[in-house]
Write a structure and sequence with these properties.
This protein is about 0% helix and about 35% strand. By secondary structure, the chain is an all-beta fold.
Length: about 200
């Protein structure tokens, strides 16, 4: 097993907008035309396309998106523009125009608008500083859009990103540089690009 896989990971949700007017929605756990049943150590998704079962131990973290507001004890935000290493054109915000909870669903919307020097806005949610895990199974039910210029993603990033690996090294020795990407590790659980109608899962280290 690669060493980075032993590090803890944070969970990130994002919709990147590039071209055109977009209205996107991410849904975790529940979506229209699906039903979810829970038993001990088993979660079953039933939909038009069939049935999927996932088996796991007791959940250590979950969000059913109950109520009208996002639970900020579980989720934080990346904010701002600058491309984010991928030449992204949007500015990420925490405004209701870009992210909201309704009908037990989390919605992330990319909007074509002029905002703080960017032509588009969207939202990027993450669990950094609130939850991470070393081993386990991550289960989500997500509705993905298609269209040119979009890049919805559900992924995990090493929680040691930007952290110095200095662990009691002699003070007379140079302090190591903070861990950067991709050395921190990244697991892309699901990504969709443009209107390809396929999804990707990728590991980086």
């Amino acid at each position: 097993m690669k060493k980075w896989l032993k590090r803890t990971l944070i969970i990130i949700l994002a919709v990147a907008a590039a071209f055109g007017a977009l209205l996107l929605a991410f849904t975790l756990i529940n979506t229209a035309k699906t039903s979810v049943s829970k038993k001990a150590n088993e979660l079953t998704f039933s939909a038009d396309a069939g049935e999927i079962k996932a088996f796991f131990g007791e959940p250590v973290w979950s969000d059913e998106f109950d109520g009208e507001l996002l639970d900020e004890s579980k989720w934080g935000f990346d904010l701002g523009a600058g491309g984010w290493g991928n030449h992204e054109l949007q500015c990420y915000t925490n405004r209701r125009e870009n992210v909201y909870v309704k009908d037990s669903l989390l919605h992330i919307r990319a909007v074509r608008e002029d905002y703080n020097g960017s032509r588009y806005t969207s939202a990027r949610l993450l669990t950094r500083g609130k939850f991470d895990l070393r081993y386990g199974t991550v289960v989500a039910r997500i509705a993905l859009p298609t269209g040119m210029g979009i890049w919805p993603a559900f992924w995990m990033l090493g929680s040691n990103l930007g952290v110095s690996p200095y662990l009691g090294v002699s003070l007379s020795m140079p302090k190591p540089e903070p861990v950067q990407w991709p050395a921190c590790g990244e697991i892309d659980i699901i990504e969709a690009v443009n209107n390809e109608n396929i999804v990707y899962g990728t590991n980086h280290w």
